[in-house]
Write a structure and sequence with these properties.
730 residues, mainly alpha
């Protein structure tokens, strides 16, 4: 194994700052600093959402330019002369050197699911300031660092998965805990993602039709690229986007026609359709549905967020939510129960730190990356892009009337089912909104009702329509609302079908230890059986969420956040262990500090969800109270029947047990990783690294989106050599 020194040719040296770069980065810092100053100091006055965007973008730029570069070149010592697995093991199937721009789009599409859309919207009940701080600070020092470091170490190990690295570098005990955690988290994540889709589309014929039409559009694109016009990416892109917009417009026609009843589906019906879709998408060839949908969603994700940021700068909407609400101090919020610490961090989850990303950074991406020097752009940069999605989601939630926000996000058991009861309940929260205003808000976006549209997606859609309609005119408010619903559902369905497929692979791998044919992922009986099992497992959580009297998303999202942060703890523990074992002990704090913070937050949240005496927080206390009610023959609100009472008892029991198991898995993984690190520090000779030997790279490719002058010269020289070789037959 070759070890590079800072002076080695493959390691980039620091370039001397020029007056122009000094002025440029000083201005960037001033913009970001001004944004933070206004957000932190403004009290009792209108604050423009543009300051939140300025704080985010300025901070992202500084972090990427300096902190990410420091980690990549000083700590990890990325080597442009070292061949990646994509180059060494290129087989045109799993391993294939992919253009950095294409890979950036793939990686972003794979990691960006519902989390950065939903979590910040729910966390808005704490106020705009806590969420903004954690989303931006968390991604810089934790989330983006995790993604980049996992990608680097996986690339150095032939693209091995997080679980494989845990088994090899920590040991079989910690590795087994990591595998169990990964599969459990995948199932919980998929159930919550599907619940967001159900809450967004229930009783919405416009949204249901538009989303339904994206399936045949994706199938058409798949066959177009595979059979009709192979390689015609530009053509199929134009066709796909045009058909998407047509589906959106047609959704309005359908909603106003006699077909409206056909596409007005109850939540239970949507559950069945989504489970069936997940199963079918998991067994179809990847080129037929998954790949074209992923490609379509990338256009929608990046384009919409960029337009939303531009809309904020043009429209300059003000933040109507308080900077810090009373719910942050008392923990009695109607959207979710619990105090600022730890639940704002658990709720925001993916927007700042996401363990799920480690599965992608140690999955497809390390098998496709051309150069080690690209881990900074793809790993760190993609996570900054996702964090910007979270910021825009928080903006959208905080610019709408707080009364409308709480009426949309509190469960029906708390606010009732009429605009009158909702108005009265919201007044009890300390905010005011009249029944007429609630009815008008629904009418403006052409929905029957906006009450208890929990899950974050409808709230984000209302905020998006508010911003865009200020730019394009109020007459298009309904169009923008349903555009946002389709945008969010595309976000989520991409993760839903891809996640089901990944879950199938994981289950096939585990069952293959018992019955070997399952190891072959293309074995049709195993493919169908494992797809059915995975779909049924997350379908159970979806069904539970839909029929949860206490509000499904309110109950399940803390479990989702805890499990996702658990996986982040696993990833950070593996990264810290690898930093120590590879001779980078003095830099172990880079992942070690985020690991300690994440573990503290996760274990505190798990403890409270299991043992809290507040029935709105503690699952077992909740179970005890409702079980006592059943024993006494009483129906306790918000349950409406004895069946609801039994449902609460069952769900609280399952949620409590899951929280306890996940907490134990966190402790096992971290403890085993700490043991390995201490042993290495005391007796380094006992440690082994599974890093693959150095092989010189023949590929010439830039590290970032825009090539430097030196990289352009290298590319020109490479092109000239190729031309000479072609002429001479070499």
């Amino acid at each position: 194994m070759r070890t590079e020194s800072p002076e080695s040719p493959g390691i980039a040296s620091a370039r001397k700052a020029t007056p122009r770069t000094i002025v440029t980065w000083t201005l960037v810092a001033l913009v970001g600093g001004a944004g933070w100053s206004v957000l932190a100091l403004a009290r009792g006055e209108n604050v423009s959402a543009a300051w939140m965007v300025a704080a985010a973008l300025g901070t992202y730029a500084i972090a990427y330019r300096f902190y990410a570069k420091f980690i990549a070149y000083k700590v990890l010592k990325v080597d442009k002369t070292r061949a990646t697995p994509a180059e060494r093991l290129n087989n045109g199937i799993d391993f294939h050197p992919t253009d950095r721009r294409v890979l950036l789009g793939h990686h972003f599409a794979a990691i960006a699911g519902a989390g950065p859309l939903v979590g910040p919207v729910l966390a808005a009940q704490m106020g705009y300031l806590p969420g903004t701080i954690w989303i931006i600070v968390g991604v810089i020092f934790a989330g983006a660092v995790q993604d980049m470091v996992v990608l680097f170490f996986s690339t150095r190990r032939d693209g091995r998965s997080l679980g494989q690295m845990a088994r090899e570098e920590i040991g079989p005990f910690g590795g087994a805990a990591a595998l169990l955690a990964t599969f459990a988290i995948m199932i919980i994540l998929l159930g919550v993602l599907a619940l967001v889709v159900v809450n967004a589309l229930a009783q919405s014929p416009w949204g249901t039709f538009s989303i339904g039409m994206t399936i045949p559009i994706a199938l058409l694109m798949g066959f177009y690229l595979r059979v009709l016009r192979p390689g015609r990416v530009a053509e199929v892109s134009l066709i796909g986007v045009a058909l998407l917009l047509l589906a959106l417009v047609a959704g309005r026609w359908v909603a106003e026609s006699s077909w409206a009843g056909t596409f007005t589906l109850a939540p239970s019906t949507l559950v069945i359709w989504l489970v069936a879709y997940g199963f079918i998408a998991s067994i179809l060839p990847v080129w037929m549905l998954l790949a074209p949908r992923d490609y379509l969603s990338t256009f929608m994700k990046i384009g919409t967020i960029a337009l939303l940021a531009l809309g904020v700068v043009i429209a300059l909407p003000t933040l109507k939510m308080d900077a810090v609400t009373s719910f942050a101090r008392h923990g009695n919020g109607p959207v979710f129960a619990g105090s600022l610490f730890p639940f704002v961090f658990i709720t925001i989850a993916c927007g700042a730190l996401s363990g799920f990303h480690s599965l992608i950074s140690s999955g497809t991406t390390p098998k496709m990356i051309q150069k080690e020097t690209q881990v900074r752009m793809i790993g760190y940069g993609s996570m900054l892009m996702e964090s910007s999605v979270a910021v825009m989601a928080l903006v959208a939630a905080c610019i709408i009337d707080p009364g409308l926000y709480f009426a949309m996000n509190a469960p029906a058991g708390v606010i009732g089912t009429t605009v009158e009861s909702a108005s009265h309940a919201v007044a009890g929260f300390g905010y005011t909104i009249s029944p007429a205003d609630l009815a008008q808000a629904a009418h403006q976006v052409e929905e029957q009702t906006l009450l208890s549209r929990t899950g974050g997606a409808p709230t984000l859609a209302v905020g998006v329509s508010e911003i865009f309609s200020k730019v394009t005119g109020g007459s298009l408010r309904a169009f923008w609302y349903h555009f946002a619903i389709m945008f969010e559902a595309l976000f989520i369905l991409t993760a839903l079908d891809a996640g089901t497929r990944v879950g199938r692979f994981m289950l096939q791998d585990m069952l293959g230890n018992v019955y070997r044919p399952f190891k072959n992922v293309s074995w049709k009986p195993g493919l169908v059986i494992t797809s059915a099992i995975v779909s049924a497992l997350w379908g159970y959580f979806l069904w539970v969420g839909v029929h949860e009297p206490l509000g499904g998303i309110n109950q399940l999202f803390p479990i989702f956040g805890i499990s996702n942060q658990l996986l982040a703890a696993v990833a950070l523990a593996v990264c810290t262990t690898l930093l120590v074992k590879s001779g980078r002990l003095k830099w172990a704090w880079i992942t070690g500090v985020p690991l300690l913070w994440d573990a503290t937050v996760t274990l505190t949240a798990s403890y409270q969800k299991v043992f809290s005496s507040d029935p709105r927080v503690g699952f077992f206390k909740q179970r005890s109270i409702y079980q006592d009610g059943i024993d006494a023959g009483k129906v306790l609100p918000p349950a409406k029947s004895m069946d609801d009472m039994h449902t609460v008892v069952t769900n609280s029991t399952v949620d409590g047990i899951l929280s306890a198991i996940l907490a134990v898995l966190v402790v096992v993984v971290i403890a085993d990783a700490a043991r390995v690190c201490v042993r290495h520090i005391r007796r380094p000779a006992l440690s082994t690294l599974s890093e693959t030997p150095y092989v010189e790279s023949k590929i010439v490719a830039p590290a970032g989106l825009i090539p430097t002058r030196e990289e352009k010269e290298e590319e020109a020289e490479e092109a000239e050599r190729d031309a000479v070789g072609a002429e001479t037959g070499g």
